Every structure is written in structure tokens, then in C-alpha cells.
Amino acid sequence: MKKTLTIIMLSLVAALTAKADEGMWLPSLIAQRIADMQEKGFKLDAEDIYSINQASLKDAVVLFGRGCTGELISPEGLLLTNHHCGYSQIQQHSSVEHDYLRDGFWAMSREEELPNKGLSVSFLERMEDVTDLILNGYTPDMTEDERVAIVKKNSKALIEEATKEGNGLRATVEALYYGNQYFLFLYRQYDDVRLVGAPPSSIGKFGGDTDNWMWPRHTGDFSMFRIYADKDNNPAPYSKDNVPYKPKKYFRISTAGVQEGDFTFIYGFPGRTQEYIHSEGVRYIEEIGDPHKIHLRTLRLDIMSKYQSQSQKVRIQYSSKHAGVANAWKKWQGEVKGIRKMKTVQTKKEFEAAFDRWAAGGEFDGVLAKIEGIYHELEPYQFATDYYSETVRAIEMTGFAASLYSAYKTSEGNITFDARKAGDLVESFYKDWYLPVDKECFAALMSEFERNIPENFRCEYFRKQMSKYGTAEKWAEVLFGRSIFTDRTKVEKLIKESSSQKALTKARKAILKDPATEFAIEFAKWYATEIQPVTTKLNQELQLAYRDYMRGQMVYCRTQRVPKAFYPDANLTLRVAYGHIKGYQPADATYYRPSSTIKGIMEKDNPDIFDYNIPQRLRDIYAEKDYGRWADSTGEVPVCFIATNHTTGGNSGSPVINADGDLIGLNFDRVWEGTMSDIVFDPEICRNISLDVRYVLFIIDKVADADHLLEEMTFVE
Hints:
Elements lengths: L1 H14 L18 H6 L6 H4 L11 E4 L3 E5 L5 E4 L5 H6 L7 H4 L1 E2 L7 E2 L5 E9 L1 H4 L9 H19 L6 E8 L4 E10 L1 E7 L2 H4 L3 H4 L11 E7 L13 E2 L8 E2 L8 E6 L10 H30 L3 H6 L1 H23 L2 H16 L7 H24 L5 H10 L2 E4 L2 E4 L1 H13 L3 H18 L7 H10 L2 H11 L5 H9 L4 H13 L1 H45 L15 E6 L3 E4 L2 E3 L2 E3 H7 L11 H9 L13 E6 L11 E3 L5 E8 L17 E5 H11 L11 E2 L1
Parallel strand pairs: 12-24
Antiparallel strand pairs: 1-2, 1-6, 2-3, 3-10, 4-9, 5-9, 6-8, 7-8, 9-10, 10-11, 13-16, 13-21, 14-15, 17-18, 19-20, 20-23, 21-22, 22-23
Helix pairs in contact: 1-22, 10-12, 10-13, 10-14, 10-17, 14-22, 15-16, 15-22, 16-20, 17-19
């Protein structure tokens, strides 16, 4: 398709004008960037980064779980990722008796490595441009619905063909540049992934929420897993007979250290960016969306923290939940600050005004007015969606009630019941649930819902309940006081007795009439009938308008010689981002050097503050300066460093690679002042934060006494 090829060429030409170190580049097209990478210090070639004909660096990188990255560091399937990426697995294996979050965990033999139900890793086999195949049969005179139908049909056929071999293969077709381009991504998934080691949270989460998104950083954010396969090295479900996976490629580990100015590149799965978003979209994020979500999560975090400080059991139960809520909460704060500092809305308006003048009377005339109009219509519905997500769906017990109700299926007058699913739901929910936390969150969040959602956007159920009880606090007292779901024993008895059709009918009715289930279902009905259809329709219209605007931007910038980077927005597909190690100046008279050391850990160490109470073993090692081979030229152990690589969520755990293709660290965060990089990238302030691999090795060797793991690795100076 000639038009498609033109679009692609435009994007590649425009990409050459990218700002310093900006961009998340497709590995299969990295040959288009390799000259720039080599000019900046990279010593390998494009085939070393991505190849389908030989082992390449891509074969040592995995999508870890549902939204992190990991890398292979030994020929025995040993995998390195972030502590926060493995946090839920560490937490699931933890108890008051065996608190791996507090104490850490290290398998001293293969037999001690812990299996993790539901955890998988995926290797990218290949990616390819399939735009012409996906749009085969489409003509410009067709409606958008007809186009969508063709895309779905062709995508399904392509995926079926690509995965017909089976053997762990899965595939996705992803739209890039708002549907101007389509790529097939073929993965091989491994489902037997076992926990090998994790430092205590006082190392792996050192600094906690206080230091999250901040620099200087001293967090030992890593955990270790091992991939297992069958005897033929193929994907297989968990079995004691499985053996360590033999990778096509694994990273050598550099112990030479890093210096400011060194070349770095990151290989990983960035989650989502919106680099080409209209000014109205940015305005909503800055002025409305982020501030309200920040406020709602502040309420939840304060409630969780209050009860966590009172009980070790509750601290463990809510540790993963707290971290999950806090991560985006703090990120949004930095995002708003960065958007404002860069005057992003104003800058985009200026670009849009120039684009409009150029587009007048041509193919792209009126596209920006269309986008702006859709945003104005969408705004109240998007606000309601944000509130539904951050309030109604944040209530744990009501969500559990709805999930359990879904285990009872009706078909032709009969009720079927998935007892195993129900049992798993019960075990998972009650293990990490504390009634006072959930009840207080309910009262606080429903009060905010009443305060901020306009009357015409409230569901009738909510109006009736608030009219009946007067306050959210009284509503909470009644709902939690009457619900069967506050009593695990009663729920388990109900499930156990769900054997005959009569019992199933009785149980289903009991769950349905429960006030917790009623809450979840009534709000879900409201959202599904009054909010979601409108947002779906408007977002589809927005997607269509953006498709034209995206193409228009490429033409405009090429023809008018406007320097602008064009790379696909992140969508959890494998990307390369490159840059160099560099400090930054966040404010007047303030400059941050690009690396931190163990000295900074000791300066922050405070036994009276949970987030800064390091293990005594680490204090003793520091006092004796017993660093072994892991000290740098200054005599200190390096901990973290920052660089100019363009990253986002999903890049957590990504390998940070030097000019020779060797591992020097693993990415885990961004600086707070630069979190707006999902929307607008500033090379002067945007920095990714990485854990120095030498600190990982130091912890394994000196703190964990797990040097048997080091014997698997390959080191280079």
C-alpha cells in the first residue's frame, strides 16, 4: 500500500530530528538509528541488538509478569528484575513466621527456589510491519466500523497463523501512530518462574514512598528468579521435573563501573506514553485528572498507613497494596509539576496554531478543531470514569463480592459453580484484607464521590443510599455490618454447601442480595449504561481524529522542516532507548551528581523510621569497610546512577547496557521532576534512575552470603 509506505518513510525521516536522547525505538528498525548510537559511543551493530537469524540482545530480555522487564544473567535461566516487580510474589510467600519482605529470601539450592502461580515471562521471537496485511480489503470510502471489522478479522487470521505451532507461542497485533501503522509481535511464554532471591525490603525498598521518584536514590531495587522449562527447553507448566531454561543469549556483567558521559542504552517494555497528545488532553491531566486522583489516593494511603503502623500483620497484608497505590500517586504529582514548569499546554497550543495555519484549505484542515470539540464533550465523562476507578473500584470487599458472584453461572435455567475459582478468590482476598482499612476507605471515598460528582452524573442507587443514610460514614456502618463478606467462615460455609441446584440457587440469591454485591453491581450497571458507552464512542472518534492529526504532523514537520521526534508511543512492546550518564539541575543553585554510594545509605540510616532502618549486617559491613571486590575507585560501594534514557512504567527491571553490550545496571525509576516525560520530554531534566549492578553483586555476596549465584554469571572488567 503506497500510502502506508509513505507514512512510514515520513516517520523515519522525521525521527532523525529527535532531541538529544529522546525516543523509544522499535528494535527491528534500529538500523535507522545505529549511526547515531555509534556516534554517541555504542560499539556494536544493529544485528547485535535485534536479529531473527542469530542470537541477539533481545533474546536476553523478557516481559516479566504483566508489566515489568527482566533480563537473563546466566546460562542457567537466572533472571534479574526489580524488587518492586517481584514484590507481590515475595509478599505471597511471606507470613508472620516467614517474613520475606522484612528478612529477605535466598534459595541456597535449586530445591529451595519457590514456584509462583500465575507468573510468566515472555521472550520476543520477532516483530514485523504488517500494515498492508492488516488493512487488506480496506478502502478509503469505507466507514470506520467497517475498517475496525477488517482490522479485527485480519489480525485474528495473522495471529492464528503465527501461533499455529503452539509450544508457548502467543502473538499480538499492535497499532502504532494511532493506527497509521501495525506491527505483529510474536512471543514465547514460559510459565514456570521461581523465586531465587530478594533482599529485605529495608534494602530492596529502602527509602520507601519518601524516596520514590526522587534523586539521590539509594534503593537496592532488585530480585532474582529462575525460568524453568521441560527437558527439551520448551515452555511447560510447573513441574518438579522441569529444568533450568537454557537461554539463546544472556548478559555478561561489567564490573568496570560507570562514569559521567558514558553511553547507556535500555532494552525493555515501556508501558504507555502520550507524546503527541493535544493541548486539551494535557490541560485535563494537569488541571483536573491528576489533582483529583492525587487527592483520592492520599486519603487511601493515609488510612492504610495508620493501620499498618499499628500491626505487623496488617503491615504485611497491605505492603504490596500500599506500594501499588503510592507509586502512581507520587508520579502524578511530579507529572503535574513538570507539565507546568515546561509550560506544556502553551507550547502545544503554539504548535497547533502553526499547524492550523499550514493545514488551512488542505487535507488536514479542521482536524484540530475536531479534536478540541471531542475533548470538551468527553471531559465530564472522563471525570466520572476517573472517580469510578479511584473510589468505587477501590473498595476491596465490594469488588470481592462481585467476583465471587461471577463464579455462579446460569445457563438454560441451571446454575453452574466453579468451586476452585471461588476457593482461590476466598484465599487470595482474606489473606490480605483488613476490615477496618476497607471500611474507613469506603466512608472517605464515598464522601468525596458525593462532594465532587455532579448531581446529573450520579447513579440512582447512590442517590437513594445517601438519602437513606445521610452520610457515607453511616452507610459504611450498615453495609459492613450487614454483609456476609466480613465473615470468612460464613462465606466458606456458603461455598461448601453449594452442591445441589437448590443449594446453588440459595447461595447465589444470598450473594446477590448482600449489600456489598449490590453496591458493586449497581455502580457497574451505572457505569456500563451511562458512562462507558459515551466514553467509548468519544474515544473512538478521538482515535480517528488523532490518526489524521498524527499523519498531518509528520507531513507538516517534514515539509516545514520543524525539528520534532517521531517514534511510536509506548504500548508495552519491546523498545530501545539510548543516552548517557549525566547529572541534572532541578532548581536554581542545585545540581545533582549522577551517582550515589553506600555512604548515602548510612547518612539516611535511621532505626526509628521504617523506610530508613537498614539491616544490622549492612551497618557492620560499612563499619568494617568489608566491601570485597565491589568498591569503586573512591573506596565506596556504588548504589545507583542516573542517565538520559527515555523510559516509563514497564521499563522497571530493564537492563541498562554499556557501549560494549554488557550489563551495568537495571532501571527502576525516573526522577520526580521529569515524570512528565510520558507527555513531553525535556533532555535537561528527564533522567532515568538505575541500580548499579555492582551493588546487586555486593548484596548477593556480602549481605546474603549467596555467592553460589555469582558462580553462574559471566563477568567482564
